[in-house]
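pasting for the record
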Amino acid sequence: MDDDVKKYKQYLKSAREGDPQGQIDLADCYYHGIGVDKDEVKAFQWYMKSASAKNFSAQNDVGHCYQNGIGVKKDEEIAFSWYQRSASGGNYLGQINLGYCYQHGIGTIKDPNLAFLWYFKSAEGENYLGHDYLGNCYQHGIGTRKDHGIAFNWYFKSANGGNSDGQNDLGYCFQYGIGTKKNDEFAFQWYLKSAKGGNHWGMHNVGNCYKDGIGTMKDDEKAFYWYSNSAKEGHDMSQNNLGHCYLNGIGIKKDEKRAFHWYMESAERGNSYGECNVGYCYENGIGITKDNEKAFRWYLKSAIKGNINGQNCLGNCYQYGIGTKKDEEKAFITYLVSAREGNSNSQNNLGYFYQNGIGTTKNEVEAFNWYIKAAKNNNKKGFNNLGYCNQRGIGINKDSEKAFHWYLKFAESGNSNGQNIIGYYYQNGIGTLKNEKRAFKWYLESAEGGNHLGQYNLANCYLNGLGTKKNHDKAFEWYMKLSQLGDINGQYSIGYCYQHGIGTTKDEEKAFQLYLVVAKKGNGNGQIKVGNCYKNGIGIAKDNEKAFYWYSMSAEGGSSIGYNYLGNCYKNGIGIAKDNEKAFNCYLKSAEGGNSIGQNNVGNCYFYGIGVTENHEKAFQWYSKSAVGKNKNGEYNLGNCYKKGIGTNKDENKANYWYTKSKERRKSIFPS
C-alpha cells in the first residue's frame, strides 16, 4: 500500500469521527485525486461538513467551490457569503478572497474600499500573500491612494516571507522602476526565486528575461525551457509565448504545427493574445489549414476582450473582407478603438484611412497626426508615411528636411525600401547635403536586403561611378540578378549592356530579345528600344513598319518619348505615310508631357510651319521650355531667337548665354 493510500484511509477514519481538519484533508484527497479517484462532488461534501462545524479554513474552501462550480452548481453570491464567514473568523485566505470579491464584484457590488480593508486585515496577520495583495492596491490605487513606494515595501515583505507572488511582483517593480530604482539584475533574481517556487508568472517572466537578455545573458534555450514549464502547468500567457518560440524557432526547432497547438491551448483558456495568434494562424495557414472565417472569429474574440492587436487584425478583416463582408466603416471604427489604446499599426492604418477618405471623411491633417502617433511608437510604416507627407505636403507644409529625417528613421529600422529612398535623397541632395558616397552606401544596404529598386540604383552607381569606383562588371552582375528575377528594369538594363558591351561581350541579338521581353510587358522604354532596333537593324533585320508599330505602342501607353519618336515617323515617313499634321500632334503630346526633345521639335514645327501655321512667337516659347529642360538643341535654338530677334526682342547677352550652355552640354556629351 503506497503512502497516498495510507494517508487517504487515515483521513477517512478521522473525518468519519467528526474531526473538522480530517474532513478538510479528506476533501483535499478527493479534490486532487490523492490515494483515491478524483471526485469533486465528494470533495465539496467533505468541505461542507467541516465548514458546517465552523472550520474557517473549510468555509473558505466551500466559497472556492461555489465560485468555480467545483462539485456543486456555480453560485457567486453563495461563494461570497462563505468567504464572509471565513474572513470574519480570521482566516487569512478567506479575507483575501473576500477582498477579491469586493474588488471584482463577485457575488456582491464592487467596492474597492472594502477590498482594500480586507486585504489589509489579511496583511495585519503577517500573511505574506495578503502583503502581496496590499502591495497591488497601493500600486494601482485600489481603495487607497496610489503610492508606488508603499507598494514596493509590501511586495518586499511578501517576497522576503517566501511568497512567490510577492517575489514576482517585486521583480516587476525592479524591472520597471516602480517605487524603487530600475534594476534589471535584481528583477531577474526575484523572478527566478518566484519561478523556482513554482509560480507560473515567475516562470513566464524568467522566460522573458532570457529571451530579451533582461538582467541576464540572452539565452533562447533557457527562455524556451521556462515558458515550457509554465505552459505545461496551464499558464495561458506562457502557452502563447511557447507558440511564439515554435513559430520562430526560438530555443527550439521551428515547428508550425506545435506553434498552432500552443496558441490554441492559450486561446482556449481565454487568453486574448493566444486568440489573436490562432486567428493569425488560420489567416495564413500556419500549422493548420487556412480558414479566413475561423481567423475572423478568433480575431473577434480577442478584440472583444480589448486586445489591441486583435482589434487591429479585426480591422484588417473588415478592410479587406477576410472571413467577413468587406466593411470599411467598421474597419475605421475598429482601427480607431485600437489606435486610441496605443496600437501603432492601427494608428498608421487610421492615418491611411483619413488620408484617402476610407470609411470616413478625408482629412489630411488628421492623417498626418495619426502618422505622428504611429511614428512616436516606433512604427516603421509610420516613419515612411510621415516622410511621404512631408515630401508631398499632405496635412503639413512641404518640408524636404523633415521628409529626409523620417525616411532616414525608416531606413535605419532596416527597411530596404526606406534605404533606397534615403540613397536617392543623398544622391540628389534632397533635404540634406548631396553625398554620393552615402547614397551608394544606402543603395548597397537596400540591394543586399533584396530590394529591386535598391539593386537597380546600386547597379547604376557602378555603371556611372556614383559614390564608388566605376565598375561595369559589377553593374552587369546586379542588373543580371534583377533580370533573372523577372524585374523589368533589370531586363531592360541587361539589354542595354549587351547592346553596348558593358560588363559583358557585345551581343545585339541578345539585347534585342531582352528589349522585346520588356516591351511585351508594356514597358514604354522597352517598346522604344525595340522600335529603335527595327529602325536601325540592331540585333534584328531592319523593318520600319515594325519600328512604327512599337513606337505607337509606347505612345499609346502615355510615353512622352514614344510620342516624339512617333512624330519622327510621321515627319519622315518611317513605316507609315508621311503626315506633317500628325507629326506635329505627336510632338505636341510629347512636349506637353514634359519631354525636352519634343518641346524643341514643336518649336521647329512652329518655326518652319511643319504641320501647323508658322508662328515665331510660339516657336520661341517652346524653345524656351526645351532649353529650361536642359536640351542642347533647345538651348542652341533659343540662342538663335535672341540673336536674330525671332519671336522675341534681340538680346546678344542672352544669345551668348544660351549658345554657351548648348556648347558646354555638347562637350559633356562628347568629351574630347
